[in-house]
Amino acid sequence: MTRTGAEDRAVPAPGGPGGPRVSHLLAPERVRVPLQAGDKEGILLELVELLATSCGLGSQRDDLYGAVLERERVLSTGIGDGVALPHAKFAGLAELAMAAGVSREPLDFGALDGRPVQLLFLIVAPETATGAHVRVLARISRLMRDGALRDRLCSAEDEKAFIDALAAAEHAT
After folding, report:
1. Contact at 8 Å (CB) between 108 and 96?
2. φ and ψ at 114, to 5 degrees?
3. pLDDT digits (tens, 9 = 90+) for 148-167
4. What would the CATH number be for the domain defined by 21-172?
5. Residue 10, pLDDT above cutoff 80
6. Which of 5, 48, 145, 156 is most buried, by CB atoms within 10 Å?
7. What is residue 37's three-state secondary structure?
8. pTM to 2 decimal places
9. What residues have CB less than 8 Å from 151, skipping those under 6 apart?
């Protein structure tokens, strides 16, 4: 198997009290700018496919997608300000992993503030990784309070620019 570098990024890196660095959990093959789907379910499937492919879970893609949809049915993961943090626990995954993307067109995601979503971060953790899972969700939530960062991510020209903008914001905190 050819290593892409994403395998190394699946392990949460030290990030101080705020948890692992979000940018360390991403690699260009786990980011899509722009996302192609035009609805919530399609976007979630697109993100699941990015993550499943890069984590060697292609044969479990449907199960992973089902876990993400099941969590989304409980309560929308649209947290407001155009951001959604879909997440799930998945037994087939060895370590916490993440995919992200930007929808050029705002999507109805049933967000808590009623606003459409453009920035999405999919977090999937093994069933035993509750602490790391919660820390990553909290870290992204804190980062996304910065409107200028949200704007930079939404206007990123490609996957590398997206990751670089996120890394720069994390470095500044």
Report:
1. no
2. 80, -5
3. 999 999 999 999 999 999 99
4. 3.40.930.10
5. no
6. 48
7. coil
8. 0.88
9. none
CB atoms within 10 A of CB 140: 22
Please write the tens of the pLDDT for every residue from 81-93: 999 999 999 998 8
- The token pair that represents 17 in the structure block: 């009290």
Convert the pLDDT of each residue in 104-129 to its tens digit: 999 999 999 999 999 999 999 998 88
Residues sharing a CB contact under 8 Å with residue 73, sequence separation 6 or more, in sequence order:
none
What single-letter amino acid sits at 31?
Answer: V
- Structural domain boundaries in the chain: 21-172
- Token pair of 30 as six digits: 């786990």
Pairing of strands 83-84, 78-80: antiparallel
Structure-derived torsion over alpha carbons of residues 58, 32, 15, 94, reported in degrees to the nearest 10? 0
Q: Considering just the CA atoms, what is the radius of gyration of the chain in Å? A: 14
Q: Is 61 left (phi over 0), alpha (psi -120 to 50) or beta?
A: alpha
